[in-house]
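Checklist before submission:
- one chain only
- standard amino acids only
- sequence pasted in full

Submission:
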Amino acid sequence: MADHIPKGRPELLFPLFAGLETLDGVGPKTAKNYAAIGVETPKDLILTLPNSGLDRTRRASIREVPLPGPATVEVTIDKHHKPRGRGPYRVDVEDAQTAFQLVFFHARGDFLVKQLPVGSRRVVSGKVELYDGIAQMAHPDHMLPPEDSAQIPEFEPVYPLAQGLTQRGVQKAVASALTKVEFLGEWVDPAMRREKKWPAWADAIAEVHAPKHQGDLSRGTPARERLAYDELFAHQLTLSLARAHRRRKPGIVSRGDGALRRNVLKALPYEPTGAQTRAIGEIAEDMAKPHRMNRLLQGDVGAGKTLVALMALLVAVEAGGQGVMMAPTSILAGQHYLNLKPLADEAGVVCERLTGADKGKERRAKLDALKRGDIHILVGTHAVFQDDVEFADLRLAVVDEQHRFGVRERVRLSQKGEALDVLVMTATPIPRTLSLAQYGDMDVSILDEKPPGRTPVKTALVSTARIDEVVDRLRRTLEEGRQVYWVCPLVEESEVYDATAAEERFKMLRAALGDDVVALVHGQMHPKDKDAAMAAFKAGETRVLVATTVIEVGVDVPNASIMVIEQAEIFGLSTLHQLRGRVGRGAADSTCLLMFRAPLGETATRRLQVMRDTEDGFRIAEEDLAIRGAGDLIGTAQSGLPRFRIANLEEQAALQALAQNDARALLTLDPDLSSARGQSARVLLWLMEQDKAIRLLDVG
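Returned file contents:
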């Protein structure tokens, strides 16, 4: 075992990280079955809590319990009925008020005759059901002489199972694992523990595995809440350590004189919102500090993130350096370039774009200009990561929609500039709960105001059966000189199938509205063709754009006033909200038509109603979290969101905020975790296997 102990793990944790075979009743085969419920060590098992319980309180008769349901009663054994053919073995019994049957399938009769001799008394416990009007208890969980019946717990914990595991087996293994629990120190702030009436860690573990009644299974019990807090605190401590570690690394001081930014603000036809001004100030302040900036700019659809990003890039240029802005797709990079370039021109700054489509001489010329420092702001896709792309003095990277960029890309990016400041933009409003868990190591600026001149979007639900009426409505809109998006459904993330669906709809709309009016864009097209189709729509040369969700983020066509989303019921709320945000960008009244196939399920109905009732992205995100849960909302596998065994992000938001404040406070007082509480916190990090995270998180 010693071979694979991670260096540094405290010895008192060794028993908790031993193999499962060290537990009573667990052999190599059973150990494999445990892996299906995510249990590989005794530590995993003690943190797998019972998810329900059985009330085994003694009753005088099964008549006292609602059927079907568990019952524990004392009975007299009356008569054995051996099976005819392949039927079950039955035993007639009688409690204080009524008679019923014990039923056994594939039973050995001689064993049952010994266990349940006629005329003897037994305490039996199990689920009682009515079958053809006769009360039956099939395969009782317990059958004991009255003098041994104290062995039956009044309330028995029920654990999650996988194939090959039984309740009895898991209970035995848990009891064995609990003998390995020792005092590990105390990492929770003593004042908080007193206020919350939380037990010590070892006591909390013992309590959650010995519930006395249904109420002990609720998240709010002191023992369960404490264990949830430990998970959240370990995670927040890891994020805070990463943040502190990054802050200790020297960054570049980028302080501008504000001249370029003033030129841009003068050229704007509107005043920035208070939220934009605040975010611009926070970013400039960060960039002027001697440590690296790592900030998240979170803004709802149309909150004006592009202006804030440009102002940040101009700080880098004013300070004598360069900035880069990266987007996940060439469409989006092109969009950013079109939005930034006119404003960069006003400021007298050279803004260029670099994508995979740049080839040969043209690409070489751009790369040379970049290396000389003649290009101040570069906009591109991940093509800017390639090794031949060199900057004269790169100060700031603005990354749009971070979750589309992997950790590896972020590492390569940080190698492009010595001590690069990073600004991550997301157009997906993230509930505070998730933003703490996912971006707890970052500083956050939130844009929660809409710039003036954005018109509210009217949202209506329309059944697919009324598609002809919808097409008539589009005809009238086109006559008024407006433009329309028509989004086709995603089908099981299959781009090929999505493309087929979009092509079918494209043909139908061309037939109805005219060949030269309708354009098509989907993920299977060549990037150049996609860009050309988008550019033609933006220029007003085509009037209806049939698309898959490739247009979800960032496309800006102020003249588009209708968004049709087909089979809206299969999209997530945040995607629907992003798509709706493509209209309402000009002065005309705008509409979003959510087309659904009847009948709608309960969840789909709730989602579409939320869309109809509100345009507030943060409220929509909170609803989405409530409907789908944290893992689904941002795709846990690729989000970097931790998988908690006990804590629940949706329901324990306040506990998580508390954990973040506490983690940051502890590191302020004790940066290297050397105090008594700090040493205990180190044990917690090893216990929660956050040791890997401490080493890895710096690349975040």
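Reviewer check: Residues 180 and 196 are 27 Å apart (CA to CA).
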